[in-house]
Fold these 2 entries.
Entry 1:
Amino acid sequence: MINRHTSARTFAHGGLLRDILWVILLGSLASVGDSRPFIPQDDSTVLAEVPPGTRHAELAARQLAANRLDVALPLAQLYIKQARSTGDLRFLGYAEAVLAPWTGPTPTSAEALVLHATVLQSRHDFLRALSVLEQARALRPDDPQAWLTSATVLRVLGRYQQSMSACEQVAVRADPVAAELCKQSIRGLTGDLPSAYAAISQIRSQGMPAEERAWRDSELGEMAVRLGKDDEAERWFGDGLRSSPGDFYIRAAYADLLLRNGRAQEALTLLKDRDTLEPLLLRIAIAQRMLRHPGLQESSARLAAAFAAEAQRGEGIHRREEARFLLDVQNDPRAALAAAQENWKVQHECDDVLVLMRAAYAAGVPQAAAPAAAFARENGMQDVRIVAVMGVRS
């Protein structure tokens, strides 16, 4: 299954243990050669006794993964999904360690390299991710996931022409729907937003895998937001969450829509029990501030500690969120501007344009918004939110 971004499907501890045990079982069955696998007759049949908790299962899976690519790949995928669903970046390290035998100085697996690039992308190490993806394509030039991941990274960097070229490579190697979503998403950022929105709206969802349907709906929701069609955006985001309830990317975008329209209590309901991820905790704190909610102090303290810990580690994964936290929760536009400027050095998405411009104007330093304004103008970016910020300024 090809998708724009790794799904954030939620794994409870029991679910993670189950999936790790499944990885072990797959490895065990594959190791018996031509022997026929044992298929239990009912769910009560005991296949193996393991100690409680995930640690022993994980250790067994990692031992298999050290020499077995067919075990390493699904285990790395599980760790990446766990990192994105919980916000615990240690799982990215686990994934990287599992993949290390096949991604070293002389890499041997294109699939392992693509997953390694996904880890780097999750850490916002975009340039290294592109380098690793180039290695993957050298090993297997017809790998559509390598091209699609490249398109995604290039889009985040604002290198739209190169991203479109990668989408064209997807078009000759993957299913037409993935290629069309890839291309139209770029058209929607480079001056053709209404027609790109119409084109994706025509893509039928019947028979589409859940993750691909969620990608389609999230793109349509974001496009509708930029077009000022908030009612349509809400419908698309709702559809996307029904297809993929654990997708924090859609949930964050939906929460932003509710917050922008003054629906803070609905945003809190949408984000209930989702406070382990900094991007979602940020939206919770913004909603709490709007409502003068008693939980704001705790949310603010947790966010401040998380951003401080990232700075101590020399990371900048959530700089955009930090800028919004400083601007919309702490009411510190000068500090928000500094964070937004650091963020702009790394990524150039619509929300990056927006937060830099808002922080610059709020801090009374309008010239600091010039790079973002120039980028939006040069690419023909259409976004009613950006127009509104500029209109307030003028």
Note: Residues 1-37, 47-51 have pLDDT under 50 and may be disordered.
Entry 2:
Amino acid sequence: MTAEVRTEPIVHERHIEASPETVFAFFTDPEKLTRWLADAATLDPRPGGVCHQIHIGDDGRRYSMRGEFVEVSAPERVVFTWGFEDDDVKVRPGASTVEVTLEPRDGGTWLRLVHRDLPESERGNHDAGWATMLGRLASAVAGA
């Protein structure tokens, strides 16, 4: 079996009306992460710590994302691996990496998310998913 070609990274940037400290917690605190990204989460935000999330698909199915934290530098950067245990998602656990950088700007936070090493077959779905989820993040932070 030949490995699938990896694509250019997905990059999303947006301004969020909250401090980097507040936004950072929405990536490292399970109670906050489940307000915008996942249905359930187990997080141990330290290098080598678990990053496990349950996502609900549009069809109502539960998808199990398993990764681990690679870098945790509060409140400016968090990096974790990303992949799914479900066979129909072609991103295996640990196969891709999500990097989130937070910078104070204009009274809030400039967020830059880079998702690397996705196979071509999954790029479009993840690109659209991150666009939607980062909109939900901005709303969740505003309601915090």
Note: The chain has three helices and seven strands.
